[in-house]
């Protein structure tokens, strides 16, 4: 019995009861959607068992028909083949889901399949957007398909994205800068797109820099580097590695010194390039500084020293005639490769320390 003076919150008639039940159902459905979405937004890859449970809830509650915002992150967690199986059962996938699958194809071992998938998309009501074309360009870059990339470029022009979308334009610059072969000067196309950009970012500058360096045009690369309004570790590494690979070791070490003064973090690639230059020039002082930097940076941290860095240190010390130091690096290596053994044997042979028994 209710206390006197208080009224129960009871619906007046059947229609009110139905409306109340419907409101509760909608509220519960939204709460579940939000819960599933938050689980799929976590940076860490869910365990396969948990992913299957989330997928089951999406299916059981009918969210797979209309809730594409749940399906997009779900597809991103699945493997390529599993995502493809899930996608086939989706009715009228949205642009974001097509994009997710095109990107999955672009990252697979058969990136050229992205074009076929894009052609299927054009037969539906979903309309391509800037992300669609950026994923397609990534696929063309990976598959080195110049002709397909040029067709995507044409689509970008037709749909009015040209020069207005910095992200997409940077993808175009990178595609042409990385392209090889064909009947056109791909780097000239890259430069044309780059010059047409109303706004440039460090990614587009780095793409042009890599394009010149890839073609061993060191002067052109240096001009781009000097003109850059902003540089990051990729900019410095591309230039220094390019100099070292092309025998310009003095320039490589000079630029390496400037990079240190600029306070830019040194990554594994630039350290390898600098050690190569030290070995070529016999610059023991710089080589020892790099060795000290590697010890201070990696020892006692969660990062491990890559085998390739240790191999480069062995080669550097051997080239400078410091055989004992080369051996010490080898002795303390937690893991070794065939190159490690070859480098040390070559160092001993060069120093006349190898003996042959009959």
From TrEMBL:
Protein name: Pentatricopeptide repeat-containing protein
Mapped PPR repeat ranges: 94-128, 201-231, 232-266, 306-340
Species for this entry: Salix suchowensis
Keywords: Repeat
Any matching Pfam family: PPR_2
Gene3D superfamilies on file: Tetratricopeptide repeat domain (1.25.40.10)
Lineage top rank: taxon: Eukaryota
Classification via InterPro entries: PPR_At4g14850-like_plant (IPR046960), PPR_rpt (IPR002885), TPR-like_helical_dom_sf (IPR011990)
């Amino acid at each position: 019995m209710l206390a006197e003076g208080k009224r129960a919150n009871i619906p007046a008639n059947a229609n009110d009861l139905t409306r109340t039940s419907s409101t509760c159902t909608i509220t519960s459905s939204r709460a579940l959607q939000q819960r599933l979405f938050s689980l799929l937004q976590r940076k860490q890859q869910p365990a396969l068992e948990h992913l299957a449970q989330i997928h089951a809830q999406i299916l059981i509650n009918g969210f797979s028909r209309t809730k594409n915002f749940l399906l997009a992150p779900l597809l991103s967690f699945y493997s390529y083949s599993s995502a493809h199986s899930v996608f086939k059962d989706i009715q009228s996938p949205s642009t974001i889901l097509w994009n997710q699958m095109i990107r999955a194809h672009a990252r697979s071992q058969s990136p050229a399949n992205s074009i076929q998938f894009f052609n299927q998309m054009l037969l539906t009501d979903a309309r391509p957007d800037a992300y669609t074309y950026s994923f397609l360009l990534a696929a063309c870059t990976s598959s080195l398909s110049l002709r397909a990339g040029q067709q995507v470029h044409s689509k970008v022009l037709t749909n009015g994205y040209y020069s207005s979308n910095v992200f997409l334009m940077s993808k175009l610059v990178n595609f042409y800068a990385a392209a090889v072969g064909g009947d056109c000067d791909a780097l000239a196309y890259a430069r044309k797109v780059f010059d047409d950009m109303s706004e440039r970012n460090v990614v587009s500058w780095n793409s042009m820099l890599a394009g010149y360096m890839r073609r061993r045009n060191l002067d052109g690369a240096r001009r781009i580097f000097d003109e850059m309004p902003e540089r990051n570790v990729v900019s410095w590494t591309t230039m220094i590695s390019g100099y070292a690979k092309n025998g310009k070791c003095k320039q490589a070490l000079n630029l390496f010194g400037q990079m240190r003064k600029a306070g830019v973090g040194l990554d594994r690639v630039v350290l390898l390039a600098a050690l190569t230059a030290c070995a070529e020039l016999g610059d023991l002082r710089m080589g020892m500084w790099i060795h000290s930097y590697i010890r201070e940076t990696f020892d006692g941290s969660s990062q491990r020293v890559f085998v390739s860095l240790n191999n480069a240190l062995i080669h550097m010390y051997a080239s400078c005639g410091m055989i004992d130091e080369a051996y010490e690096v080898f002795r303390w290596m937690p893991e070794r490769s065939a190159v490690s053994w070859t480098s040390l044997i070559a160092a001993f042979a060069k120093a006349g320390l190898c003996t042959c028994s009959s």
